[in-house]
Amino acid sequence: MSELAGQTYLKMNGLGNEFVIVDLRKKNYAIDADTAAKIADPKTGPGCDQVITLEKRKPYEGVFMGVWNADGGEVDACGNASRCVGWLLMNDLESKEVRFQTGAGELHAWRVGDKRIAVDMGEPKLHWREIPLAEQMDDTRFIDVKLGPIDKPVLWGPSAVNVGNPHCIFFVEDAETQALDRFGPMIEHHPLFPERVNVSVAQVISKHAIRLRVWERGAGITKACGTAACAALVAANRRRLTGRKATVTLDGGDLAIEWREEDNRIIMTGAIELEGDGRFPDNF
Ligand SMILES: N[C@@H](CCC[C@H](N)C(=O)O)C(=O)O
Asked: Is 8-121+272-279 a domain of CATH 3.10.310.10?
């Protein structure tokens, strides 16, 4: 039996990217990788793509948002969960904006509609050491990695961007036909990415529209990935394929992404959904 037995949780999603959110701010325990994986697996818990914890975590001031992938690994950033947590905290505080902490730094979220939230996701990191890559690549707009079997590559030369977590983005003519379920895991575990990587295929529709499908590190294909949408817009703009503002269409819906020229920060705007609450069973 774990310390979560009897504890309540919320189910939320951002464009179908599913979260179980556990509020541990008044508890004196944290979750670990095994517990996160047990919560995320629908055979043993409520099931989700990411487990999100709200914590008082030292040395952070204020509320800390913990992000745990379905495989149990803890990571630093989650765009869709940031909108969900922003919405929850703003409701708690009866406020129109809020700041909270993550492993990737402080985030600022504000309300732009009833269940529509904007988040300042910070500045992208573009140097190969910051992605991180295992070897020097001076131009992260086009890195030397192949998607598919070494002797018969299907795609090659993605961009790499870190937006609090590592992303690699392949620009393709048709995102729908890419076998992301086959190639996603190969690239996620490619030795060029020492912390593994989130893998996207991006189809540029126009200067202001991108179609994106994502294989998430530690979670597989999800209906939407907010940080991937941010990374894709940055990569597309660096390749002069789009402007600095675009609608990114994921399987679960649209995100508006802007990479601001004046301060280099990425603003992500999109919907959130509250599905309901639940309680971990007494024998959890
Ligand atoms: N779904 C998230 C990203 C979650 C973390 C990611 N899988 C990673 O391992 O970095 C999003 O909306 O950004």
From this structure: yes
